Description:
Elements: H1 2-6, E1 10-12, E2 15-17, H2 20-34, E3 44-45, H3 48-60, E4 65-70, H4 76-88, E5 91-96, H5 116-133, E6 141-146, H6 150-153, H7 180-183, H8 187-202, E7 206-210, H9 214-226, E8 232-236, H10 255-261, H11 264-277, H12 283-297, E9 299-301, E10 304-306, E11 309-319, E12 339-350, H13 356-359, E13 364-372
Parallel strand pairs: 3-6, 4-5, 4-7, 5-6, 7-8
Antiparallel strand pairs: 1-2, 9-10, 10-11, 11-12, 12-13
This protein binds adenosine-5'-triphosphate, pantoate and beta-alanine.
Adenosine-5'-triphosphate (ATP) binds at residues 70-71, 77-78, 80-81, 209-210, 212-213, 236, 238-239, 246-250.
Protein name: Pantoate-beta-alanine ligase
EC number: 6.3.2.1
Enzyme class: ligase
Amino acid sequence: MASTMRALSTQSRGRIRLSRRLQHLVSQRYLSTTSSRPTAPFPVFRDVPSLRTLRRQMFRDGKQVGFVPTMGALHDGHLSLVREALRENTDVFVSIYVNPTQFGVNEDLDKYPKTWEADMQKLLELKKEFREASEEGAVGEICGIFAPTTKVMYPIMPPSSEIGGEGSFVTITPIGKWLEGASRPVFFRGVATVCTKLFNIVQPDRVYFGQKDVQQSVLIRRMVKDFHIPTEVRVIATSREPDGLAMSSRNVYLGERRRKDVAVLSRALLRAQEAYNQGELSANAIRRAALEVFERSLEKRDGAYWGCQKIEIDYVALTRPDDMTTIEDEHSVNLSEGAILSAAIKVWPVTHPLSEEEKNQISVRLIDNVILEAKAVQ
Ligand SMILES: Nc1ncnc2c1ncn2[C@@H]1O[C@H](COP(=O)(O)OP(=O)(O)OP(=O)(O)O)[C@@H](O)[C@H]1O
Ligand SMILES: CC(C)(CO)[C@@H](O)C(=O)[O-]
Ligand code: BAL
């Protein structure tokens, strides 16, 4: 108490100024009520100045810095991004931060899986894998985990998830309004905003994103170009489960029975890709090839598809690869540019729950896509 009193504010030109010591105490208290300090086999950065100090030294030492932004709950898809970053850089930062502004008010922010210990274990194993490979000339090191608090990421205004919410936001339109953006109206505003902040803090030479979230990667490329952000955007192929389902942190919400039905999503996209590879160029026919897989695999009732639960198709969209504009059904894919076929489904809770887990299920939104590769035109 006495030391707190000694640290109390001093008057300066009629305004109250907190002494440095008190500012420190206040911020420690704020941090300790918002998060505990995680332990990890890597340096963990919870705020900006400590990371900046290291980054400045790296500039002086001529390091090549890669950066993998994530929301944690790491799986092999994330690890493939980190692996690629380790191959191409001397030092790699991974961020683990569940960014509130990209979740709509009724989305799963509070339920989003948090698996810090398991995440650290997976990164540690990857580090060992790399150390063993280093005899063959592999390069990188995981030099730090950036795991900021929300107060660090949003220092001035509390983060808003409201559509018209106030705050400092980055919006990338029109691309951020389509497809995922149509169903999740604040999603891309949140992603662009948090990635701008993260890129400003880490100042990476290269950033790594997954093909699974294809629209996100196209939007980030555009943002980097438009704002002259000095980094290279690398996009890494989608990692899949043995039955084809794209790995995703949210797959854990599915439970056993729903999990069996949802491989239909990748099957449908891969069937359409096969049709394209066999020479089909009509947009309508390519999309139909995917939709027919849903029709064949699942019973159709009430305008939606049902397995042990209702599956609603949000979109099956054929788009141009560079700007994700739609290739309308009456048009064809331009062979010299190729296309992206992407889809989103909403998987409802099972209709007749058989366990506690099934009684507590929430709807799960899954996305996936395939690339229809450009081909040399004679
Ligand atoms: N299966 C995957 N293959 C390759 N990259 C992936 C895969 N899944 C996610 N990523 C990439 O990892 C990065 C971090 O994604 P994120 O932490 O949101 O994981 P996620 O599995 O996509 O989670 P969610 O289920 O919330 O969508 C993003 O660039 C994302 O595209
Ligand atoms: C890029 C990202 C980490 C921003 O929060 C997130 O959208 C994600 O995990 O794909
Ligand atoms: N994988 C992108 C982050 C999200 O869906 O919220």
